[in-house]
């Protein structure tokens, strides 16, 4: 499980996927999110702008990201 540290209150889902290196661009993030391939805390998430906070867990393509503050 990869950990991403956020500086502010939150990070948006598309940004987290890019930061973790799971997608190469915002366009790719949009495609995989809208395609229902990404889960946040076990639930499929369709919003690229979903705000992720401390403790959230994102899964995509067999990889897991843990959001930390």
| Mean pLDDT reading | 95
| H-E string | EEHHEEEEE
Poorly predicted regions are none
Question: How many runs of DSSP E, i.e. beta strands?
Answer: 7
Kindly provide the radius of gyration, computed on alpha-carbon positions and rounded to a whole number of angstroms.
Answer: 10 Å
Key terms:
69 residues; alpha+beta; 5-stranded mixed sheet; two-stranded antiparallel sheet; 2 helices
Q: How does this structure look, described?
A:
The chain is an alpha+beta fold and 69 residues long. Helix content is 23%, strand content 33%. It has helices at residues 13-19, 26-34, and strands at residues 2-5, 11-12, 38-40, 43-44, 51-52, 57-60, 63-68. The strands form 2 sheets. It has a 5-stranded mixed β-sheet. Strands 2-5 form a two-stranded antiparallel ribbon.
């Amino acid at each position: 499980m990869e950990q991403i540290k956020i500086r502010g209150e939150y990070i948006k889902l598309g940004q987290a996927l890019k930061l973790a290196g799971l997608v190469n661009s915002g366009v790719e993030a949009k495609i995989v999110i809208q395609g229902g391939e990404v889960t946040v805390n076990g639930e499929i998430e369709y919003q690229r702008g979903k705000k992720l906070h401390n403790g959230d867990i994102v899964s995509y393509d067999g990889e897991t990201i843990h959001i930390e503050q």
